[in-house]
N-acetylmuramic acid 6-phosphate etherase
Amino acid sequence: MSSKPTGSMMGRRNSGTENIDKLTTEDMLAAILKDDREITNAIATCLPTVTRLVDRAVATFSRGGRVVIVGAGASGRAAMQVACEFAPDTHHGLIGLIAGGPEAMLQELEAAAGDYDRGINDLQAIHFNQNDMLLGLSVSGKTPWVWGALRYARSLDAPVAVITQDAGSEVAQLADIVIAPDTGPEVVVGFANPKARLAQRQILTMLSTGLAIRTGRVYGNLRVDINASSTRWAERQIAIVMEATHCSRAQAKETLGSCNHDCRTAILMLLTGLDVWNARDVLAENSEHLRISLEEAKRRSVQKAS
């Protein structure tokens, strides 16, 4: 067997960093930083497709479906992390699955990643259905567990999207939406794919942030769905209400106390003069979307005045 690097590996070598092991530490880090700038440019090229992903995910949420993100290894851990960090409550439809389950969060489980049937079984276990949406993560596009999950979702006619480095891979052929940012060769070849994974993580952040905004968890650029689960978060609530309504700290604290420390209700009360019961009713009628609830409250106020 030849000991020479394969043609594909040679093709992935970064000509700009071939002598990186000879550089000073500062120059080495500068080269890495310069190369990482390609990530943002690669994602910008994919922006129309990322837009389709976010809009489809919002549509899935609006009909009561779930967005399930699946991956193996580092991709699976990214899926779990973005789902866990999406919202302070558990009443949302963003779910992460990793090949091998919770144990795989701590160590690589190659056998699980290579199990096609388990990808199917893991979706069946959460009762995945045609109202849900599947987002598969696979940098190489060659993960059997992800293939199984994607094929199962397609068999149900559920929408399927993938984030991968290879637009011609197996996973890409199984998806309705393919996001394949060309981040170029890695700084160092042969171990991991940090640039591809950073691009994947940035796209996931765009998805989760976009979902939060479109589902009313954000007002302006303020996160208004946080809970007062600790003193620190209670203080964060007070600061957000003050910023959103330009009220005093005392007013924010008193109003939050009167509405069971619900941030959106407090803001709606202070901006419209509604009492807690009417504010809660308007929010409930508008799926807890604060911006829409404010517009509705103002519309009712104008009608009442006329």
Notes: The domain at 11-214 is CATH 3.40.50.10490 (Rossmann fold). The two ends are 87 Å apart (CA to CA). Confidence is low (pLDDT under 50) at residues 1-10. The beta strands are 67-71, 94-98, 133-137, 160-163, 177-179, 218-219, 222-223.
